[in-house]
Amino acid sequence: MRFDIITLFPEIIENYCKYGIVGRAFENKIAQLSLIQLRDFGIGKYKKVDDEIFGGGVGMLLKPEPIFAAHRSIQKEVNFKTILLTPSGQTLNQPFIRKKLLPCDQLIILCGRYEGFDERVKSLVDYSVSLGNYVLSGGEIGALTIIDSLIRLLPGALPKGEQVHGHDSFSDEEGELLEAPQYTRPAEFEGLKVPDILLSGNHQAIANWKKQYYSL
After folding, report:
1. b/e string for 167-194 if b means 16 or more Cβ within 10 A?
2. What pTM does this model have?
3. Which residues are catalytic?
4. Measured between alpha carbons, how far is 200 from 93 in angstroms, rounded to an integer?
5. From CA 17, how far away is CA 27, in angstroms rounded?
6. For residues 138 and 9, is the Cβ–Cβ distance under 8 A?
7. CATH tag, 180-211
8. What is the dihedral of CA 153, 157, 159, 161, to 10 degrees?
9. Rounded CA gap, 172 and 166, in Å?
10. CB 179 within 8 Å of CB 169
11. Taking the domains of the chain in order of start, what are their residue ranges?
């Protein structure tokens, strides 16, 4: 899968994508990352990317021209989708990631800043996505959330022995199941004990115990 991220702060994306499962996936060519600096497409001598809001309003709005130019500069796969990170978008969840985003060969992600985007930018977009009912300084955290959650689902991204994401929280069809509590050694720590059932060796009983947690 290929990720093309349009952002004013590519360093945020780049730094995160050097580490852990995500970093290994890019290093091993399981996924590809391209960072597009929006200011490279800014207007005039000072590479302007924002302007005042028509009709009044606090703050500055990202202009459409640089975003359209940045989007058009990207070489696109046949099966690509464009995602806009915005508070008004649909809330990101695991079923959406699996059903809508995972089948894509390429995702172009637009990261907002300031007061957001000129409304006309939405004509480029297939999906508008929000992380939840709160406001962040920009779309980079949302872009990283999409990248991380998708890479975990790509074949070969997780090391052998860890490829159990089908049992992860929210991995059911409706995205509602939660993983059961998990423990490791020691069996007792400061008076807190691991449930006896997990030490019993009875795999069927353990499986039944875990099922009680498989709902929100």
Report:
1. eebbbbeebebeebeeeeeeeeeeeeeb
2. 0.87
3. 87, 115, 152, 168
4. 35
5. 10
6. yes
7. 1.10.1270.20
8. 20
9. 8
10. yes
11. 2-151, 180-211
The angle, 0 to 180 degrees and rounded to 10, between the axes of the packed helices 140-151 and 20-27 is: 70
Contacts of 82 (CB under 8 A, 6+ apart): 71, 107, 108, 109, 110, 124, 125, 126, 127
Please write the tens of the pLDDT for every residue from 144-162.
Answer: 999 999 999 999 999 875 6
Report residue 199 as tokens. 């030490």
What distance in Å separates the CA atoms of residue 7 and residue 16, rounded to the nearest whole number? Answer: 14
104 to 67, 83, 126, 136, 150: CA distances (angstroms):
22, 12, 12, 26, 10
CB 101 within 8 A of CB 126: no
> How is residue 175 written in tokens?
């995205």
The CATH code belonging to domain 2-151 is: 3.40.1280.10
Q: What is the pLDDT of residues 117-129, one digit of tens each?
A: 999 999 999 999 9
How many angstroms separate the CA atoms of 53 and 69, rounded?
20
